[in-house]
Amino acid sequence: MPIESDRDYHILSDAFERHAATIEKSLSSVMPAVQQGADMLLDVLKKNRTLLICGNGGSAADSQHFAAEWICRYREDRPPLSAIALSTDTSALTAIGNDYSFEDIFSRQVEALGAEGDVLVAFTTSGQSKNILKAIKKAKAKNMAVIALTGERGRDIGSIADIAVVIPSSETARIQEVHQVIYHAWCEYIDKWYSMNR
Fold first, then answer.
1. Candidates 3.40.50.300, 3.40.50.10490, 3.30.70.1110, 3.40.50.1440; correct CATH number of 6-196?
2. CA angle 57–61–65, rounded 5-degree value
3. Within 10 A of 198 (CB to CB), how many other CB atoms are there?
4. Where are the domains of the chain?
5. What are the CB-based long-range contacts (under 8 Å, 24+) for 8-17?
6. Does residue 185 contact residue 41 with C-beta atoms inside 8 Å?
7. Quick one: residue 31, left, alpha or beta (phi over 0 = left, psi -120 to 50 = alpha)?
8. How far is CA 165 from the centre of its chain?
């Protein structure tokens, strides 16, 4: 039976309103970090280095989405770019989780696949995920740069990441929605650079 009452309708409209409010607050607070991230990503592709991307749950999906835009394309036809979503290899994930621990599923891959000059993009809405924090520390130990995308509870992640994009919200869904806007904006930035430098 469909939802028909005004009260239930507001469940839907309230989600849109909270999304819009989070976007507006983010626009006034995160743009310097977003621009720094865009410039770092541009430097990665100019140097023909690789993005390693990680996250849990919905953020794992964001990792895969971002990597796909990088490898395939966003809007413009351009050369494929090197990116690896560390949430996609189920054999590696389950082997590392079984033989070591869930905390090691990303850091072990960073150790194996990352190199100096590469960049780790880490999604964590809470900023508290142990496997993400461990991956960041491993990346820094390998002289990789790190961009962390998080929410307001993850503000402290800026102490270990080179760039921290902190969405001013504690609501997981709204944080993830803004993260998607950001990495799509980064893809658009890269497309624009390619169109101007063919």
1. 3.40.50.10490
2. 165
3. 6
4. 6-196
5. 15/173
6. no
7. alpha
8. 9
Q: pLDDT (tens digit, 9 = 90+) per residue, 95-139?
A: 999 999 999 999 999 999 999 999 999 999 999 999 999 999 999
Q: Tokens 């390998």 — which residue?
A: 142
Q: Is the dihedral of CA 148, 151, 154, 158 positive or negative?
A: positive
What is the dihedral angle through the alpha carbons of 192, 195, 196, 198, rounded to the nearest 10 degrees?
A: 150
pTM over 0.85: yes
Instruction: Give phi and psi for 175, each to the nearest 5.
Output: -60, -45
| 42-72 residue pLDDT tens | 999 999 999 999 999 999 999 999 999 999 9
Cα–Cα dist 71/151, whole Å: 27
Are 11 and 160 within 8 A, CB to CB?
no
- What lies within 8 Å, CB to CB, of 17 at 6+ separation is none
Selection from 156, 155, 189, 144 nearest residue 54 by Cα? 144
Higher pLDDT, 67 or 77: 67
